[in-house]
Amino acid sequence: MKKYDVVILTDDHYVNNISSDIYIQNAFLEDNLLRKALEKLDMSVERKSWSDSDFDWSSTKFIVFRTTWDYVHRFDEFSKWLNKVSNVTTLLNSENLIRWNIDKHYMLDLKEKGVHICETYFIEKGTTHSLRELHQKYKLNDVVLKPCVSGGARHTYKIHQENIENHEIIFQELIAEEAMMLQPFQHNIVSKGEVSMMVMNGKFTHAVLKIAKKGDFRVQDDFGGIVKDYQPTIEEINYAEKVVKSCPEMPIYARVDVFLDNQNRLALAELELIEPELWFRNHPQAANELALGIKELI
């Protein structure tokens, strides 16, 4: 049985580079940059789908999560796999960090450690309140509703007084199955965008600015958003590194998404420790930094 130092993890959609789809091409480009960086440091590398039932996961020293973007839709299966594989090899980031980061309740942990987050209300699974009642309870107007376990803007809705009744049915269906979040609509994300800062081994490496297309509030390029290189301020860099250092343990890689909230304070939009797009193609040196961190572990 062949042994590996590192397996770069993807999902079934990105195993074979046989499509002209830009997302598949980018996934291969990003993973290949990391692979080359690891191989340059004399590490043996393989790339596999997390759901490959034929692969012996004990044959690798480390697994690096990268483009496992289907886990949200196969969560029960993924969770069982995660538990099993963590017993035979080392996960990067660790199972402990992944399970903590999967659920947006982690933002409350960060808030307790002094990380500023925007106004957020967690609506727990099984609540019997309607959206209208929650709006009245928290004195809300325009809000964004989204699941606590999500990705790619899954079930993310912009709700206001004129369309709230249209969302009552979907809200009741969702809250019966999972916890949700309500956040006042953040106007600066539309006008100024959202900054994603990449942090390798606890240190900032590079950043991009994500801007929603006209008429939308979602900055993801899946929905037409624009991504461009960005030079953050010292305040933003310090904030990103503080977020990472406030985690239960130090992640080997992280993406810290920030924006100016409605009070013009720097706030956390999301901390990505599982399968974030890291834009190595914009800054290949960051792949080298991640590879160096893995080499040190070996």
Sequence-ordered SSE layout with sheet pairings:
Layout: E1 4-10, H1 22-40, E2 45-49, E3 60-67, H2 75-85, E4 90-92, H3 95-102, H4 106-112, E5 121-123, H5 131-138, E6 143-147, E7 157-159, H6 168-175, E8 180-184, H7 187-192, E9 194-200, E10 203-211, E11 226-229, H8 234-245, E12 253-260, E13 266-272, H9 285-297
Parallel strand pairs: 1-2, 1-3, 3-4
Antiparallel strand pairs: 5-8, 6-7, 6-8, 9-10, 9-12, 10-11, 12-13
Helix pairs in contact: 1-9
By DSSP (H or I, 4+ residues per run), the number of helices equals 9
Strand residue percentage: 15-25%
**Separation, N- and C-terminal Cα atoms:** 20 Å
Average pLDDT number: 92
Query: How many domains in all?
Result: 3
CATH class of the largest domain: Alpha Beta
CATH architectural grouping of the largest domain: 2-Layer Sandwich
Uncertain segments of ≥5 residues (pLDDT<50)? 215-219
